[in-house]
Amino acid sequence: MIAGSPIDSATFVIGLLVGGAIAALFRWARETPENKKDTKEERQPARPSDQVNFTTLSETLDLLQEAVMLVDPDDLAVVYANKRCDRFFRTSNEITGRPLLDVCRSHQLLELTQKAITSGSSVKEKLGAAEDDSRFWTVYITLGTSPKPEDPSAPKPLVRIVIRDDTEQIRTEQIRREFIANASHELRTPITIISGYIDNLLDGAINRPELATKFLKVARKHSHRTNRLIEDMLTISKLESGQIGQITSERFSLARCAEHVIDQLQPIIDAQSATVTIETDPESEFIVGDRFYWDQIIFNLTENALKNNPTQPIDVKISTRIEDEHHVVEVTDNGVGIPLSSQPFIFKRFYRVQKDHSQTIKGTGLGLSIVKRAVEAHGGSIEVDSVPHQHTTFRVLLPHTHTEESAPPIS
Fold it and tell me: How many Å apart are CA 185 and CA 181, to the nearest integer?
């Protein structure tokens, strides 16, 4: 069975069937006049409809997501390639007429093709691409049927090769497995703590009001953390699943949004003796977008600054401005900063910069991941500028058109 979605499987099979039809037309075109005579009567010359059929079949193959090639079994030269082959093999040169190895740069594919020719049987294999390529392929190779198997002088049937790029599917599966493993690990800790304190209560602590209250407060704290983690996982899942159509479009004040975030984080701000200020101007204060996700963006960036600097009072500034046709939103702090070696990974799910005290930073590990995906869902980008022990600035860049009151809904 061919792996992948039903549509992938269908186009994979169509590639083989239509490729076989084109192979038949190629076989007819390359036969010598002597070979075009059968035992009873000479075949008729190729009709105009044959060319029409070839064009129709070729156009059909050009619509497929798979790369489809026909290869001469004698010299392993490519005699036909659909348009997908140009993109698949990353070449702007003509493929037809070139040796197979020169086109695909994969000794594995060449060996599989030779194996199919030698054995006379179909071959299906999953393999990596060329040595300098990180893609993964599924290759299906079949041989056409000779119209005159009893005639050794008859042209050999062409080799049909259909290749599907499985790289995205494999990477998505790897990401899914990593997400499940990390999420399970993150959920296990608070659930284990809650379970432990409940066991202590059942073992007698419930009869000691002061101790029972302490245990219940700890259990409640970790239940809130579990709920936050689940909510964050649902949010990032929605953003990554492509449900962008659910993003709403409304004009609102970023200053009001930031004020709401500060109200939510006030207990942490007070506990750390931190200061959080807002700096906007009339031109850049308003934006068009989804208020829910912008609350998430500013909340996570501000909370990230506070929670990564738990032992020192810091200054956090939330600012907006218009710059070079972009609406710029920045969250800056003067805390511990982010090492240069960690900066490429900070938007990865569950990644923590300061692993030495990560247990003291009570976050979900998904905040910056949510920020990046929410910004991209609005057509923007995010970058970080940080110097350890000096400052960290997260900078969100949006096309200025998104801030106009007449801007079209985001979809």
Answer: 6
